[in-house]
Every structure is written in C-alpha cells, then in structure tokens.
Amino acid sequence: MIYLTGKGGAGKSMLATLLAQRCAEQGVRTALIETGSPGGPRRDSAEKAYSLFRLDERTALGQMVTRLLRVRFLAARLMDSRTFSAVAAAAPGVRELVYLSYIFDVARGHLAPAGNRRATPPDIVFVDGFATGHSVELLSSPYTSAELIPIGPAARIARDIGRAARDADGFRVVSVTLPEELAATETAELQGALNEIGVRIAATVVNRVYPDRFDRCEDGREAALEWLHARHAAGEPGSSDARLYERRRVRQREIVEGLRTLATGSEFLEVAHQFDGNGSQTPRETIDALLKGCLDGITNTENAE
Amino acid sequence: MSAILEAVLKSSRLVVFVGEGGVGKTSTAAASALAAATGGRCVAALTIDPAPRLGDALGLDSLDGTAGRVHDTELDAGGGELWALKLDTQGTFDAAVESLAPSPEAARIVLGSPIYRAVSGSLGGSDSYMALQRIHELTDADLYDLIVVDTPPALHADELLSAPLRLDALMETRATSVLADPAVAVARAGSALARTTAGVLVGILQRIAGKGMRVELARFITSFEEVIDGLRKRARTVDTLLRQRDCAFVQVVRPTATSVSGALELRDSLSARGIETAAIVVNRMTPAPGADRAVSRSERLQGAPGGVEDAVESIEQDLDALRSSERAAVALLRQAIGDDIAILEIESLEHDVAGVDDLSVIARKLME
Q: Which runs of E-coded beta strand occur in chain A?
C-alpha cells in the first residue's frame, strides 16, 4: 500500500492517479482510494484500468460496525441512531480509525469497488491521502484510540491496524511536497510526527522543481550566468527572464537540498515543473521513476542501514 | 480598484484573510495591517503560523501569544500602532478551559485527561475554535481600532465559520449525556420502545468501545460540558461579529486553475453563509517580461558562451507558458466574479519577506 500525503495543492491527487494508471498498465491489479481531499480534481467514472474506491465517512463507519457486530440488521439500526453518529464524530480518533480500517479492508480485498459486485484483493493500493495534518491524525489514530479504548473488539482492530501501518514492507508513506519554504517546513513536521508513532516516510517527492537549463552550456553554467550578469550590469539587453528564472531556481535548490538531507536514508525524487500548468502531461519516464522509487524505497533504506 | 481594499482597511474593525496554505496569506495580511497602521489606526495583526523570517520581521520570535509592538520610521510618523500576535492554539485552549470550567478542580480534571490532550491537539477543528476564541478576546478587550486575522494554513475557512454550529450540534444531540450516564439517558427516552432501543444502543456502544472508554469519557464530559457551552457562546458572539458590516473578508489566491476554482467554491460557501467577499488578492504573479524581450534573442545574446542561447530560449518559453497559464487563471476568476468583487493582482516579491521594509513594498503594491 502506497499512502500519498502532502500539502494541499502539491499535486498528490494528480500523482496518485498517474501512478495507479501506470501501474495498472503493467498488468498489476491496482486499486486507488480517493479520500476526497478538498481541491483535488474530480475524476470521471469512465472505465479505468484500476479499481476506484471513494472513502466516505458513512460507508466506512458502516463497514466497521458491521464487522464488529457481525449482524447486519443490528449494525443498520446502530448506524441510524443520531446518538451514535454524534459520538463517532466527537470522540477523538474514532473517525480516523474508521477511515484507516476501511483503507486496510480495501487492501485485503474485503471490499468491492464502486460499480462492481466482486471484491478481488489488489496487488497494490494507492491512497490519495489527506493533507499533512489530517494524515498525521489518521495514522496516529490506532494509538489515540488505544489510549482511550484499552480493551474490547475495537481495541483489537486498533492494535491490528497499528501493527499493519508500521509494517514498512506493506505500508509505505510517500510525502509529496513543493520547493517552497512553507511546504518544506510542513514536510519536516510530518516526518517528526510520523517518527513518533514509528511510521517512516518511504519516499519524498518534490513536485514542480525548476530544471537547470544551463547544464548543457559549453563553458559550464557559471560562465553562462557570469556572461548574463555582466551584460545586465553594463545595461545591455541580455535576458531578464533568465535572471528571474535563476533567482527562483537558486532559492528552490536551497529548499530541495534541505529536504534531501531530511530524507536521508529513504527515496528522494524531484519532478520537473510543468510550466503550462498541466500536471497530467508529466512525462512517462518521470512516472516510471516515481513508481520504482515508491516500490523500491524500503529495500534501499535497508541497504543504507 | 484597490481603493476598495484601502477603504476596507480604513473603516472595518475586523478584516479576515482566507485562502489555502502557501498563497502568501500571512504576508498579505501583515502588509495590510501595516498599511492600515501607517494610515494612523491602532491595529492588531493576529498571525497563525508565520514563516520564521516573517515572524522575526514582526518581532514574533520571542512571543508566546502576547502582543508585540512593531516599529518602523514611516509607521511611527503616522501616529498609528501595529501590534503583532501569534495564535497559540494549545495556550488559548488551556486558558479557555481554566476560565470556563465550573471549578479549579474541574479544570484540573479536564486538563489532565488523555481525551483533552487528543481533542485540543489537532482533532476536531480545535484550530478554528481557538481562532474564534482569540478574536473574541481581542474584540472584547477593545484595545484596537482594527483586528487583522490570518487564518491557519490548513484550515478551510468553512471550518472556521461552521465551528459554532458544530459545537451546537454536539450539545443538542446529548451524545455527551448518554455517555456520561447511560442509565439516565435510557430512562429519559419517551416510550417503552424508545427505552428499549436506547438500552440496546448503549449496550452496543459499550460492547464496541469497552468500559474503559466510557468511564474516562464520563469523568471528562461532566467537567468539560460547561467548557464546551462557554466556548459555544463565545463562538456565537464572534459569528455575529463576522457577519456585521464592519467586518470584511479578503480572499487570497494563487494564479493557478486549481487555486482559482478553490477560491470560487469558497466565495460561494461564504456567500451562502451571508458573508460577501470584499476583495480577492491574486498573489505571486510572475512579473511581466522585461524590455530586453523587444530585441531579438540572437542579437541580445551575441558573443555569449555556446549553449546559452538555447538555454535562454527554453527559459523564456517556460516563463511565457507560466505567464499565460497565470493569465488564463485570472481571466477565469474575473469571468466568474464579474464586477462585484475587487480583484487585485500582485507581482511576486521574488524573495522571502525579510523585514518590515518588504511588508511596506507589498503594502504599496496592494494600495496601487
């Protein structure tokens, strides 16, 4: 299971879709779970090579209650009670635990995708996850609830899920971020919060990075930039855009290198900015590299240790 | 056009900046607060999570929720004052519990409960309750002419506005009393059938959650119920303030299609709650191409090292593509908004806000 999280607007939904698509094309049984994070693109329900799940509170809660009670009739009665919904909504960690349990049920093939009756266990599940803060709540919910509900069937589920989420081979968190100060700070906080509950980030993906355009200049980039600066200093027309681009790129490099240091020991990938604003045009090679990064991340980590 | 923003900052008592994280909301709010203070008003800028350098610029590094005065020659000459404050969610929550709990003993129980730690940390939109709390404290103290509020990065403005409603719902469902004392709740249910149903439900709840949670919840809820009620009343007061004429909402967006569609949704949901957006600031526009672009590339770059012309060509194409996608996003926004709301396009600063001077630059751009 690959759980993508990151700052809102960093492009996680786009990447999750492209990854699921690419994975399915290679003949792997793929599932994609949308969490309905705000701002994400609405996907059409046309034929997909992968099976699509949509996480909504009622379905997920119903699924969990049915599993707990093993009696559909009683579960339905309970679900109809306003009191129960209010408790579920207000009790800390319960909603998150329910979501997390739904995600693992999809992974274990307990659930059929929308518009399909049969449930088949997928080989790989991509989760277009919540934004950073909410993801931390989600992934720490087994602990929050273990503290509140130490015994009983719900506690067993919480323990079970908590164990699965810490199994680095089965559950991989991919952090999608941007080369911007605020996003980088958030990524560092995410890593800190996940470390506390024993969940590691398998891969960090920095989206929308300005590529180096001077890397193929004959005398190297330094000489090229020096020439442009001299031109500017002399008041001659050179390229104001190149200076603007480089200013932005240099600032981005600082942030990207900071993120790379943070991600030491796990997979680290950069995705080039699509300047026309159309992320779905991300080149296939980039997606393949990402897919490989997501899947190999853990093995590399073990080697590094 | 930005006369509207200027007027808003002159006449309002409360200006709330809303928008997704990373759009430059904090610096836009701080620059607006500076502009109003330079104009002679006494302004409080409530920031939530400023980037380190902006925090330093506002003198926030050493601050823990208390107000710090910002000084600047131009600002001080105008006779106005700018005070910066940082929202400390946990501190505000703890203080609210202490002031609202029925007794010091009850406050101690609440503050020590694992449920409180979970709730007050990040669950259940505590950021929005606390932002409302802080606004309540600030307006209640009546020390400032204008309060400028920057909303938390991860917070949807909707969450802020629905906070009082969610607290109401929690109180009304009596969910808390069922957990606190199931026997009483069951007995209170009207008919025999309802009593049986309630009894079965409570039994099921206990079976799922175990007795431990119920006991812990009961202890917590008895003490917390009055706190929630107090929070709810304060949230209601602020809710009224937010709908008054002297409160204005300013949306901040980025010039991308996703950001614009998010902003339109937000405009609609604000409007559905009876709040009309006063202005939309489109931040971080890529500056227009320089005068050098009038000269052909080969002429401009004559004598440059090999490969430079190709590099510059792709850069200029990239930035032009970026500019046109930004223009398309703004056009989409203008088309959807019409002439109803002022739209301000602000060029990006091209470096992080490092001091009050940078805020002045942004303020001037906003007032242009």
A: 2-6, 30-34, 51-54, 124-131, 172-177, 201-209, 267-272
